[in-house]
Write a structure and sequence with these properties.
The protein has 448 residues and is an alpha+beta fold. The protein contains 14 helices and 15 strands. The strands form four sheets. Strands 13-12-11-14-15 form a five-stranded mixed β-sheet, with helices on both faces. The longest helix has 25 residues.
Amino acid sequence: GDKGIGRRWYLLLKALLLDFGFVCCVSEPSLFIYDHRDEKMILNTSTDDFLCAFNSQPLFNRLCDKMRTMFDITTKEGTRLSYLNLDIIQTEHGVSYDQTDHIRRKIINKYFPPEKIAESKLKPVHTPFRIDSDYEKELAEQLPASKDELKLLEQRYGDSYGTILGEIMHVEVVSRFELSYAMRRLGQFTHGPTEAAFAGLYRVLRFLATHPHRPVMYPRRKFDGFDEIRADFDPPKFKSIQIPRTPCTIADSDHARDTLRRKSHHCVVSLLNGVIVHNRVQQQRAIALHSTHSEIIGSLAATKETNYLQDIYTHIGHPAVNIFPFPLYLDSQPCIDALKANTTTTRVKHIAVPIKFIHEKIAAGRIKLHWIDTTLNLADSGTKPNPSPTLTRHYDYLIGVRFYPPVGSTHHELLQLDTFVTSPYTKAKANTADKVPDDPICSESPRD
């Protein structure tokens, strides 16, 4: 079809759903909801693939009959579903999804076939981005590869830079959120790849080959109460914070870590029932003059994302008391003070417009600011290359590893959790005597 065929298809589908009784979400046009009497259905569309949740089988049957008047459709219901390249499992323990099969078929089998691993003995890695300063220097100082050098790099690493980047981003934006920081940094080299950038992408591929299976798990439980985020140090020392099971957002920003461009990054993660539902890592457009500047820009992004999510929660009928005001956790007290002051001081006068926007949302009851310790900030690993223990602790919490179904359950077997790999760096320091010093898998070098 022509360029407008996608738009015409959506308008046709929207007209059909509206005629059936659905209401389209203003903030998310692909989301529709049907809510009449005691029947309710939430329908998500992706071109001609639909994913729906409903409480009435007759309602679903009527919708199928309606669609069959215009299209040929196939349906699938049950404990295990495939939607696009997602594997979705729903049992009494909760709902999980992952892209493990897609990762193995499209990435691991392509870049690490069995014969290649047998020859080179692929070295596992447990962070997607190198954490040493030497790598930052390489990224900043290396010149883009020449035409001949680029051809050699593509042969060495298996494909063009853009292709490798796109294949990784396809899973990063949906289920592998721990790759977000690496993708934002390495995505800057799309138009001028360097050898260091290629090596960075290859490290991400090795990380996926080491940890292909990291499902996201949502538990079946009520929204009442709180969950604890906890970081343990030398016993009995620890830090913890209680966050609500109702929707909340956590944000963080770095300051000019990118030594080439000196631009900052911010990360926004939103949780529902203690598990991630939204993730956004971005490079800030302007160079922040100081850390409070970058934190305020990150808070602005978090406020915008929060408003978007509030509209969706309201549309699907989530109780207003749980989303107004929306808790927003920040680890910068100067940033919180500036946003709560309801004025602009000389220190932040150059960003008065973003501050005023957040002031308005606070006054309107849309958000409420809270402080969280940096050690407990789950968005921290989206703004910097943290070491494996910190990265693993953050994203294990975000994807709901603590809610994984018990051994022996149907959900555990379907999810194939026997293949779930944890980083050896997460061992307690008291057990370091058990570690083999020369084992490359357990090497503590930042290059590994």
